[in-house]
């Protein structure tokens, strides 16, 4: 008697690490949203302690505006709370857009 043994089919799922997943997600997002000189992309990053905002022109690969809570004008104001500092950072890109004639 000849018995043929069939190996069981084992499927392994490839799990992306957290950093790889973020890179993949960022690449997919940049396909949809590209900043142009007339219509820039607003990039906002919020860490535990700081807030950063950038206006990006992806066609020319330039940062048109950069603002954060680490700027001297916001940092020197000791009466400013975290929420008020975030409001100041949010208002600055709007002023920059008006100066640069960006919609």
Query: Which residues form runs of ≥5 with pLDDT under 50?
Result: none
Percent helix range: 25-40%
Order of helices and strands: HEEEHH
Count of discrete alpha- or pi-helical segments spanning 4 or more residues = 3
Mean pLDDT: 81
Could you say which structural class the secondary elements and strand pairing correspond to?
alpha+beta
Strand content: 15-25%
Largest sheet: 3 strands, antiparallel
CATH architecture of the domain at 35-100: 2-Layer Sandwich
Shape: elongated
Explain this structure to me?
This is Ribosomal protein L18. Keywords: Ribonucleoprotein, Ribosomal protein. Pfam families: Ribosomal_L18p. The structure is a single chain. The chain has 103 residues and is an alpha+beta fold. It has a domain at 35-100: Nucleotidyltransferase, domain 5 (2-Layer Sandwich), CATH 3.30.420. 37% of the residues lie in helices and 19% in strands. Strand 2 (51-57) and strand 3 (62-68) form a beta hairpin. The longest helix is centred in the C-terminal third of the chain and has 19 residues, at 82-100. The protein is elongated.
Notable traits:
3-stranded antiparallel sheet; 103 residues; 3 strands; Nucleotidyltransferase, domain 5; alpha+beta; 19% strand
List the helices and strands and how they pair.
Elements: H1 18-32, E1 41-46, E2 51-57, E3 62-68, H2 72-75, H3 82-100
């Amino acid at each position: 008697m000849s018995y043929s043994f069939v190996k069981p089919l084992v499927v392994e799922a490839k799990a992306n690490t957290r950093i790889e997943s973020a890179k993949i997600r960022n690449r997919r997002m940049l396909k949809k949203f590209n900043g142009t000189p007339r219509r820039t992309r607003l990039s906002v990053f919020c860490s535990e302690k700081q807030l950063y905002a950038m206006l990006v022109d992806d066609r020319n690969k330039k940062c048109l505006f950069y603002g954060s809570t680490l700027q001297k004008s916001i940092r020197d104001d000791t009466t400013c709370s975290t929420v008020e500092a975030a409001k100041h950072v949010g208002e600055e890109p709007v002023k920059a857009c008006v100066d640069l004639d960006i919609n």
